[in-house]
User: Fold these one by one.
Assistant:
Number 1:
Amino acid sequence: MKEKKSYSLSLANKKDFNNINEWVYQTLRTSIMCGEIRPGVALTIRGLAEKLDVSSMPVREALRRLASESAVDITDSRRVIVPLISPDKFKELYSLRILLETHAAELALPYISEKQVEHLIMLDKEVDASYSDGDIVSGSLANQAFHRYIYKQNPVQVCMPMIESLWLQLGPFARVALSKIEKYYEYDRHQEALEAIQQRDSFALRRAIEADIRDGLSVFKNIDEIYHDLKSSE
Amino acid sequence: MKEKKSYSLSLANKKDFNNINEWVYQTLRTSIMCGEIRPGVALTIRGLAEKLDVSSMPVREALRRLASESAVDITDSRRVIVPLISPDKFKELYSLRILLETHAAELALPYISEKQVEHLIMLDKEVDASYSDGDIVSGSLANQAFHRYIYKQNPVQVCMPMIESLWLQLGPFARVALSKIEKYYEYDRHQEALEAIQQRDSFALRRAIEADIRDGLSVFKNIDEIYHDLKSSE
DNA sequence: GTCAAGAATATGTGATCACAAAAATATTGG
DNA sequence: CCAATATTTTTGTGATCACATATTCTTGAC
């Protein structure tokens, strides 16, 4: 403990966003998602503002927005931290992923065209490429892109913000957990999903999505000890 | 069209909240939930700030928070409006209510004690009282309180923010739709839910919750025409 | 050495201001 | 009288400031 805040806040994109606001939000969001900010350490508005070279205003708004997405906690004393989620909560987040994502996939299915299937195949290749490079972070981001692209085809968008919130809450913990794993077994559930889409088989699509999510979960055999380690180290 | 903004912004509670921030948020939230703000009209930060007698700062943050809960839309030109949801979206919101609330109820069941069942019975009486008084707004708020009390017993809280978001999105439209209805058929699904809880029958509880939500939906036979009316009047 | 109390510092909150962009209003040309 | 342009007003955004509170550091007593 008592180490310098050393997360890099990967500002890949310049400040040519519409709002600085939005840029700060996206920067912090991906930073949390990729586990660059350790759970438990306090985030200060002024500190982040200085690091990002903006005033405190955009940081305040970004942090509040992240708080209402459950990506960060605001404690009683108004300190902002990335929460360390309990194993129970971790499992519940996965349950909700299955519940919402199978639902979203089924509703999106009628809207997925042949052209879009091709794009999905490309996205899937990026997932495989990242994982075979051993780049877990890009891998899970690419995996999210694959899932997001499916669900987004539904013109009625209600689930997506909720699913994004689930991903965001899982992000930091998943990152820590995955970093302690030697082998990452990759079953190709995406292939099953693509076949289900091409055959317009909504039930098969649900099964493929569920299996894909469960495969992801099955990697975390050690969440309990990891939780214990993280909790005691803070 | 072109009428004065005449919603009352029911400030039942004084500014003895922790933050003015929070007070503004709650005030705007209930105002939207109860349909006091007409869908489509632009909300201005300065206008709300003046009406609530605070600076623009808390209003800005409250509006952004509401935006990330999908309670308001921020248009491309950065104007904030309460969205008018389409009939398709309305139905999807109800689907998600069923999906998430049956799930939440099932998970909460093991944690509901006898004492808490008594409290639920009291909450149910308040629902009945409001509806028999013909007070639809208090009725649906009381109904929410009943459901919320059940789901909140689960110590692992992940669904609740999502469910609250669904209620919030349905609020303004439901209010308009209900105001055009003469008779409101009230089946007592709450009674069924209470019995299921007492018998620890999770499947029966799921059915009761689902039936309760479906009953609520069945009232809106006329959503399509109401949507059309609202859309053309703006 | 340990712990508690007080001083010093850091931090979140709310207010105000300047500026650019968007709406609304006024003006001009047909 | 109407449409297109110009002007004025309104509005959101980002920055800065003052203040109250939380946190941290220091000091002193046991």
Number 2:
Amino acid sequence: MRIGELAARAGTTTRTLRYYEARGLLPARRTDNGYRTYDEGDLKLLRQIRTLQDFGFDLEETRPFVECLRAGHPEGDACPASLQVYRRKLDELDALIGELTAVRAQVGRQLARAESARDGLAADAAVPGGPEPVCELGGRQR
Amino acid sequence: MRIGELAARAGTTTRTLRYYEARGLLPARRTDNGYRTYDEGDLKLLRQIRTLQDFGFDLEETRPFVECLRAGHPEGDACPASLQVYRRKLDELDALIGELTAVRAQVGRQLARAESARDGLAADAAVPGGPEPVCELGGRQR
DNA sequence: CCTTGCCCTGACGCCGACGTCAAGGCTTAG
DNA sequence: CTAAGCCTTGACGTCGGCGTCAGGGCAAGG
């Protein structure tokens, strides 16, 4: 099959496939006229790449899986190098989720504080100096 | 104070301050010789920006906070536009954390499956066709 | 006068994963 | 013959938030 068909069957674009080839991730055979040719095995490799990409893996991180499949394994994660990538990714995800959760809590507190400050200041109760200045963002919005 | 001092006091770089100015976020007055001049208020604005940046806010998302401070409010989140940004960010964070958590679970399952498959295949028990192919990644590493 | 240490503008580099043109070749149907 | 619809390479654009020169100016101390 040619590049357009493979791209369509994998739900991606020809540009992406040429990019993978340039990166050495998914090399292609060529026909006489220079057209790239792929087989079902390439589709499988490609699907493995896309799945991992969907999980947020970098392209380079998919390489062990692809090489594992190319080495004849039925699953891309049958090789130690792939498992290593899994474990590293889990650590990264845990760290990231932890950070984001902390940030979420912090932002949540800020919002609560700001809202209560706003409520508390209603009727200019806590501002002896007069009414507080007002944001002038009325007219045009982006 | 000049740009170098402000940068140092805020723990950032002069390049960053010039960038903020170019983006219209933190304009500077100028001395006769063209040097940028800042005051304590600018330091406050800058700290607000950096804090939000540390939370993962885009530069554009900090703008309402900066304008709020510039409008005379003691807090950058005293304005409705800032609160809107908070809320949007919370939604984004929740969505992102949710996705990442789902991915983490999925990757965790893949790892468990791959590991158990590996264990199960120990001693070539489940491979009638002979020993499984081995990943050849030995020689050179990146 | 010269060096040192600030400051200035302008402009390219970076990173990742492609998108999007440009300019052209092959093949097949009409 | 020609147009349509594939394919080719090459190369620049995108996005954010700066880093890093290059080439120069200004001010103060020795």
